[in-house]
Design goal:
45% of the residues are buried. The protein has 3 domains: 75 residues, Uridine Diphospho-n-acetylenolpyruvylglucosamine Reductase, domain 2 (2-Layer Sandwich), CATH 3.30.43.10; 125 residues, Uridine Diphospho-n-acetylenolpyruvylglucosamine Reductase, domain 3 (2-Layer Sandwich); 82 residues, Uridine Diphospho-n-acetylenolpyruvylglucosamine Reductase, domain 1 (Alpha-Beta Complex). The mean pLDDT is 94. Helix 3 runs antiparallel to helix 5. It is of the alpha+beta class. It has 7 helices and 18 strands.
Length: 305
């Protein structure tokens, strides 16, 4: 029986052979066999309950830290849209000491940071520098400017592969550097974040500092995937890449950014094969030069043509 014969009915949008390249920052890669954009949590749960267990599920956020390989993704890619992007519930924590922000997994990091600022919640300014969604940030323990999701997450609402909705506290996330132990096939749908009371103007100033620093140091206005490699202990990935002579290195239309060496960019016609091959060449040269085995931070998914 084919996948076509077994997909459940949905209230949201279900697209066959969906073009994923337009949904990711690199603007490269193949098709999703199916792209599911659920109408709400109930729609997502029902779909997963009825979907045969052998059909793989893969969640897609804003596509900012991702290489979709040119052969595309088999199974179902789940993309959470506006129904999951609300950042609307703000309440005082116990005794008013802490401030709690609740946001949908489809909300961009900047939306959460802005809501926190507007309500005087400090400690979430770094989300201004996270280019993806809250759901993706929760899954990979995203971080920037000295803070990570583990520093502000209280709990996450997650729909498991069988459609069950559970709340997972921080202690059970299994966080390490850019990694969580969320179950395979599970999808983050909401997160509860904890901060401290602060002055909106001070918070806003720090967010602006982060925005200005990113603009000055990163190739934000290019087709890129964000930070490519994880920082090794006590080292900076960009510096290792630079010292290995990889600044500006190019394979096809894929290039190591000359502005920031830990960014790969698509000059216009790069395939995902080009981009991934360039990353592997950088890893090879860094290993030869410094002995450091750089690890990918960008997630690479799908089939190779």
């Amino acid at each position: 029986m084919s996948v076509v014969d077994t997909l459940p009915s949905v209230r949201g949008k279900l697209t066959e052979n969906a073009n994923l390249a337009k949904l990711v920052w690199f603007k490269s890669g193949g098709l999703a066999q199916w792209l599911f954009e659920p109408k709400d949590i109930d729609d997502l749960q029902q779909f997963l309950r009825e979907l045969p267990a052998e059909i793989p599920i893969w969640p897609l956020g804003l596509g900012s830290n991702l290489i979709i390989r040119d052969g595309g993704i088999q199974g179902v890619v789940v993309r959470l849209g506006k129904a999951f992007a609300a950042v609307e519930t703000v309440s005082k924590g116990t005794f008013g000491i802490d401030d709690i922000l609740i946001c949908g997994a489809g909300a961009p990091g900047i939306s959460a940071a802005s809501m926190a600022r507007d309500h005087g919640i400090a400690g979430m300014e770094f989300l201004r520098g996270i280019p993806g969604t809250i759901g993706g940030a929760v899954r990979m323990n995203a971080g920037a400017y000295g803070r990570e999701m583990k520093d502000i997450l209280e709990s996450a609402d997650v729909v498991l592969r069988d459609g069950t909705l559970v709340t997972i506290p921080l202690a059970d996330m299994g966080y390490t550097y850019r990694h969580s132990k969320l179950p395979a096939g599970s999808i983050v749908v909401a997160a509860k974040l904890r901060g401290k009371s602060g002055d909106p103007e001070t918070i806003g100033a720090e967010m602006q500092r982060i925005a200005d620093e990113r603009e000055a140091s990163q190739p934000l206005r290019t087709k890129t995937g964000g930070s490519t490699f994880k920082n090794p202990d006590d080292k900076k990935a960009w510096q290792l890449v630079d010292e290995a002579g990889c600044r500006g290195l190019q394979i096809g239309q894929a290039q190591v950014s000359e502005k920031h060496c830990n960014f790969l960019i698509n000059l216009g016609g790069a395939t995902s094969v080009d981009i991934e091959a360039l990353g592997e060449e950088v890893r090879k040269r860094v290993k030869a030069h410094s002995g450091v085995d750089l690890q990918w931070e960008i997630q690479r998914v799908g089939e190779v043509l």
